[in-house]
Every structure is written in structure tokens, then in C-alpha cells.
């Protein structure tokens, strides 16, 4: 999401949109996520319900090579999508949280979408120090504060080798693939109130996917909220894999793929077929 102002489009049958002004405190690099504002929603029919927009910005600091991360969230809004060609302004931002100082490096956004778990938004931040490294940014919308979480694996990462997940037990998950080996962790809070990573499984994908070349690099490109399902690419092929049942299916082939965004429901006019998983190509265009 870039630019001083953005529009949120909703069902194409009514031609409605919301105009979104950025909050006053803006980073030189920034991203945003649209969140359902209904607790316990399964997101199968909430397109006309209340929503919020979470905004995170990063400002580099020249003195120490680090940065400040800031964030805020809009007040819950209910859109009136029933009015054809409606156009409304959304500028009701809540108080920004205290900026978080990240010293020693300036991170960039991971290509994959953030995940929302138990009232908090999580996103992988990538930074380069001889090799690529990952740190997890947590934005707690309830307490309106930012914090950093170390991933369960130390050391450098390959790009697109790690993915955050919203697990089916409402915990934060972290998946990492190295060649044909996939490791899965979940973050649990103990009786002492301290959260830590627990390894759930180590999976040989060669036993579950039709891998012909074990040396071919696999990429993680997304996950399904609350289902323990991930999406993996091998070459031009895209696979959906459930990490509990190990059931998989081949979706389709794409070139220059950056990310995949699954959704629960989608309106399309009669007679027009739309794939249930839009794909994001290298230009940022949604492919259906």
C-alpha cells in the first residue's frame, strides 16, 4: 500500500469505495492491513460488516543505521455498501502507539501477507547483514503497542523460506522450508505468562508432494488462516498442503509469482468464473 491516499474497494456489484487518508505520523516505508472488527467471525460473510485498518510505518535513522517503527489503527467502521457508486472518506485514526526503536539495521517488508492472531498483527521484517535475516514485528491492537519477537530459528534465511501462520488452535505459527524439509513451530504461552516457541513437527515434503528433483528450491508463498494449510511453489507449480492431514492438491502454474492470498468468499457476476485463490504477480497485479 503506497501513496498519501488509498481506496478500499468492496463488492463490484455496487461499485463502492472508501477513500483512506494516511495517519499524520507516516514512515518512509509503510504497509497496511484491512481487518474484520467482529470478534469470533469466521469471515465467510463479513464483507459488509465492521472493519478496521492497521497501519505500520518504518523511518530509517541515518546516525546508527537503525530505524523507528510506528503504528496505529483506525476506529471500527461500518461501510454502507448498499448505495450504488458510493464514495466515502475514512480518516478516523486512533492514537498512534509509542514508536519502537530498532537499532543496527533497517528492515524491509516481507513479500507475504501479515497474519492476525488473538488481537495482534504479526509481520516478518527482513534485513540484510552479510546474509538475509528475519525478525517478527508484533502490533498488539488491544494494548496499542509494538514489540519484536525472535524467530524460532537463528541464523540467516533464504528469501521465501519462512512463513508466519495463524494456526487452527489460535496460536502463532512459523513454518520454514530447507530443501525438502519443512519445520513447523507454534508460539504458546506457559503458566508463567511467558510465550515461547514449541516445535510441532518436522516434515519430509518428499513423502507428501510430487517432488522430482530433491535439490530444487521450494518456496512458501502463503497460508490459510486457522487451518494449518500452506501454499508451496516448486518451479512454476503451486501446491496447497494441509500440515495435519498431509492432503495436497495442485492449484495451477504461474510465472514470476510473489504471493498468494486465499479468501473465504467472493462475489462474481453470473457466468464469470473466478479462481478461489488470487495470485500476485511481480507487478503487484492480482491475477484471477
Would you give an account of this structure?
The protein is mainly β and 288 residues long. The protein has two domains: 1-104, no CATH class; 107-288, Hemopexin (4 Propeller), CATH 2.110.10. Helix content is 0%, strand content 49%. It has no helices and 24 strands. It has strands at residues 5-9, 17-21, 29-36, 50-60, 67-73, 77-78, 87-90, 100-102, 108-109, 115-117, 120-129, 131-140, 145-149, 162-166, 172-178, 181-189, 195-204, 218-224, 229-234, 237-242, 248-253, 257-260, 279-281, 286-287. Strands 3, 4, 5, 6 and 8 form a five-stranded antiparallel beta sheet that branches. The two termini are 20 Å apart. The relative contact order is 0.11.
Q: How is this fold's topology laid out?
A:
Blueprint: E1 5-9, E2 17-21, E3 29-36, E4 50-60, E5 67-73, E6 77-78, E7 87-90, E8 100-102, E9 108-109, E10 115-117, E11 120-129, E12 131-140, E13 145-149, E14 162-166, E15 172-178, E16 181-189, E17 195-204, E18 218-224, E19 229-234, E20 237-242, E21 248-253, E22 257-260, E23 279-281, E24 286-287
Parallel strand pairs: 2-7
Antiparallel strand pairs: 1-2, 3-4, 4-5, 4-6, 5-8, 9-11, 10-11, 11-12, 12-13, 14-15, 15-16, 16-17, 18-19, 19-20, 20-21, 22-23, 23-24
Summary of the model, kept short:
The protein is mainly β and 288 residues long. It is 0% helix and 49% strand.
Question: Which short descriptors sum up this protein?
Answer:
five-stranded antiparallel beta sheet; Hemopexin; 288 residues; 2 domains; globular; 24 strands; mainly beta; disordered C terminus
Amino acid at each position: 500500500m503506497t501513496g498519501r491516499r488509498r481506496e478500499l474497494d468492496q463488492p463490484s456489484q455496487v461499485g463502492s469505495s472508501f477513500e483512506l487518508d494516511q495517519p499524520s505520523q507516516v514512515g518512509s516505508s509503510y504497509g497496511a492491513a484491512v481487518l474484520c472488527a467482529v470478534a469470533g467471525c469466521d469471515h465467510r460473510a463479513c464483507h459488509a460488516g465492521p472493519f478496521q485498518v492497521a497501519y505500520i510505518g518504518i523511518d530509517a535513522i541515518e546516525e546508527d543505521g537503525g530505524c523507528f517503527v510506528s503504528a496505529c489503527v483506525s476506529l471500527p467502521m461500518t461501510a454502507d455498501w448498499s448505495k450504488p457508486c458510493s464514495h466515502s472518506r475514512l480518516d478516523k485514526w486512533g492514537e498512534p502507539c509509542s514508536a519502537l526503536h530498532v537499532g543496527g539495521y533497517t528492515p524491509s517488508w516481507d513479500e507475504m501477507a501479515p497474519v492476525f492472531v488473538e488481537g495482534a498483527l504479526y509481520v516478518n521484517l527482513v534485513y540484510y547483514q552479510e546474509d538475509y535475516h528475519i525478525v517478527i514485528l508484533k502490533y498488539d491492537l488491544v494494548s496499542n503497542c509494538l514489540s519484536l519477537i525472535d524467530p524460532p530459528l537463528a541464523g540467516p534465511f533464504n528469501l521465501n523460506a519462512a512463513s508466519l501462520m495463524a494456526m487452527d488452535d489460535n496460536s502463532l505459527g512459523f513454518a520454514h522450508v530447507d530443501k525438502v524439509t519443512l519445520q513447523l513451530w507454534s508460539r504458546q504461552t506457559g503458566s508463567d505468562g511467558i510465550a515461547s516457541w514449541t516445535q510441532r513437527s518436522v516434515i519430509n515434503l518428499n513423502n507428501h508432494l510430487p517432488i522430482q528433483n530433491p535439490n530444487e528450491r521450494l518456496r512458501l508463498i502463503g497460508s490459510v488462516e486457522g487451518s494449518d494449510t500452506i501454499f508451496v511453489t516448486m518451479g512454476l507449480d503451486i501446491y496447497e498442503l494441509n500440515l495435519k492431514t498431509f492432503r495436497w492438491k495442485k492449484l495451477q502454474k504461474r510465472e514470476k509469482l510473489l504471493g498468494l492470498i486465499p479468501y473465504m468468499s467472493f462475489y462474481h457476476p453470473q457466468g464469470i468464473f473466478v479462481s478461489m485463490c488470487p495470485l500476485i504477480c511481480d507487478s503487484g497485479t492480482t491475477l484471477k
